[in-house]
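Pilot study result, target chain (283 residues):
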Amino acid sequence: MKELIILSGPSGSGVSSSKFVFEELGYYVIDSAPSNVTQALLDECAVNNDAKGFCLMPRIGGAAKVVEAARKDKRFNTKFILLTTEKDELIKRYALSRHAHPRSIMHNMPLEDAINLDIKDALDLVGIADYEIDTTRLTTKELRINLFNKLQNKESDNITKITFISFGLKNGIPVGLDAMFDVRLIPNPYWIARLAPLNGADQEVIDYIMSFDITKELLSKIVDYLEYYIPEMQKLGRASYTVGIACSGGQHRSTFVANYLRDYFKDRYNVEAYHRDSPELNK
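Predicted structure:
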């Protein structure tokens, strides 16, 4: 059974900001589709096996019809998340953003009337929502954490995904790194004939690398830095933080260190190791 989340709320309540949370968690997001195409969308989602789950974000006026249709479809495990916000806060947000309200444009009505109509529709949906999140006093970061926890069924501020990317400098530096550590201080197993064809996940290579004091010292200093920096990233509500681990060829030292850091932090954070130049290790 596929996971389907329906999220809606008054314009200005944080629906657009929520979209990125779903995308970061691997959901396929469909935003502002008319309610009369819901069944066609459900049929498409039912045959799509690429996404972790699906998120429909209908406008508040058509959300009830979308929820009704989705809950009748037994191919999906459907949950409805409703965002609500107090009227004064919505008015303030529109005054600050200077965006046009969709209903003001489509129905040629004053902003306050459009907001009142959205709030009325939201009140009508409270009784059918699986989760209601009042965003009146939430920052964007707090909304992200709230949503992330509801989707992951846990309570935590750890919403940042940490990726350790191993690579060889001879093949260039990956795009989009937030930090990089050069681990070429570690003696290179490549120059040991029996180790040359192996990689940093093989025990013989691990034993060789860990036999040097410089390895232990370097790992300790990298860990000390990340012990400080990762919690700071979490506080900022960052969606991802990518750490490059560089050696000469991306086969031995960098793959070992990336795996070491993944295993060191995996019980506390959402972490993964990716080996750009040793793709066989990504299986």
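One observation from the pilot: The longest helix spans residues 213-236. A full batch analysis is planned for the follow-on phase.
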